[in-house]
Amino acid sequence: MKQFLTILFFTFSIQLIAQDNAFTINGKIEGLDTKYISLIIYDKEFPNGMKQDSIQVVNGEFKYTSATNKFLYAIISPRMERVVKKTKSGFFPAKSSTFQFFIAPGYKIKFAGQITDFVDAYPSGEKNNSEFGKLCKNIYPLLNSSVNLSVKIANKVVTDTNIIKRMRDTSAILDAKVNALKEKFVRANPSSPAAAWLLSDMMVRSQVTNEAAIEIFNSFDKEKLKGVIYYDEIAKRVEGFSATAIGKIVPEINTSNTFTGNKFMLSSLRGKFVILDFWGTWCGPCISGMPKLKVYLDKYKDKMEIVGVAQESDNGERWKKFLVDKPQYQWHQVLSSKQADYILQFNVAGFPTKIIVDPQGKIVGRFVGEDDAIYTKLDELLK
Taking the model in full, what pTM does it have? Predict the structure, then answer.
C-alpha cells in the first residue's frame, strides 16, 4: 500500500509539474487552407538546436498544448506554397512567411489574422507576445515587399538595369525601416525577454552596430532578464566584441573537438600569421572561398597557418565527411559546440568571417564575407 501511494504521489507530482510548465497555442486564420502546420521550437539543448512537431488544422483553426521550463523562441511554418519566396535555384528564408512568437511556462498564445502572399497573422495572449506581435504587424508588410522585390530580381522578371537598381534601392530602404523599428522596440523594452531575443538576432544578422548593441545591452534590466538564454548570449557577444577587436590579443582556442581528434591550442601557432576561418558546410560562400585560401596557404606556407572553426547543426558528421572528401582543406580544423561556443566567443555575426592574427597573437584584421580585401592585407603583411 505504501509503495502504491508513493507511485501515485510521484505520478501526481509529474502531472503538476507538467501543468505548471504547460503552454497552449490557439489560432483561427483566414486563408489557412492546409491540413497541417509545422511548429519549430529553438533551443541549443535540443538535438540539432531545434524540436519540430506537426499541428492539425481544421477549417483554418488549430490548437496545440505542450510544456517547457524556459522562455524560448518558436515559429510556425504554414506549409503553404504561396508564402514561399521561391527563386529558380532555391528560396529566400523570409520571416514574413512564418508565425513568430515565444513560449514559456503558463503562456496561452493566440493567433489571429490572414494568409495572403505572406503570414499576416500575429500573436497575443500575454505581454511578451502581444508587444512582439504589434512589432511584427508593423514590419511584416515591409519585409514582404522587400523580399518580393528580391524574388523578382533573382528570377529575372525585370532585366532593365536601371529598374533593377531602383528596386534594390527600394528594398534597402524597406530593410532599413524594418531595422529601425526593431531597434526602437529593443530600446523601449529593457526588461523584456522578447527584446533580448530580438537584439541577439539582430547582432547575429549584423542589423545593429556593435556600439549600439553594447549601449542597448547595458540599458537592459539585468535582474529581470537573469537566466534568459538570449540575454546570456548577448553578454557573451558583447564580451567577444571587446575581446576580439583589432589590436587585442586573440582569445585562446583550447579543444579536442578537432577533425583529427588531437588536442589543439591556438597559442601553439605563435610565431606565424594565423587566419581564423569561421565557416560551415551549409555556407556556400565559405566553401567557394576555400580554394583561394589554399592558394595563399601554399604561397606563404613558411609564414602562415589556417585554423578552420566550423559551426554545424548536427554533431559534426557532415563536417567530417566534407573534410574526408576534400583532404586539401585539412588544415587545422575545429568544431564549435555548446560547451565551447567559439562563434559567440569571437562575436561572429556573419559567415564566412576571417580574422588575421599576427605572430605575437595580436588581431590585425577582421573580414566578413568573401572579400578580396583579406588577400590584399595578407600580401601586405607577409611579403
Answer: 0.81
